[in-house]
Amino acid sequence: MSPLRASEKNFNPGRTMETKISTGVSYLLHPLLIPFYTLILLMKLNIFINHPVPLAFTAIMLGSVLLTTFIVPVFLTWFLTRLGLVSSFFLVTREERIYPILAVAVFYYVTYYLLRGTHISNIFSYYMLGATLLAILALI
Question: What is the pTM of this model?
Answer without folding.
Answer: 0.80
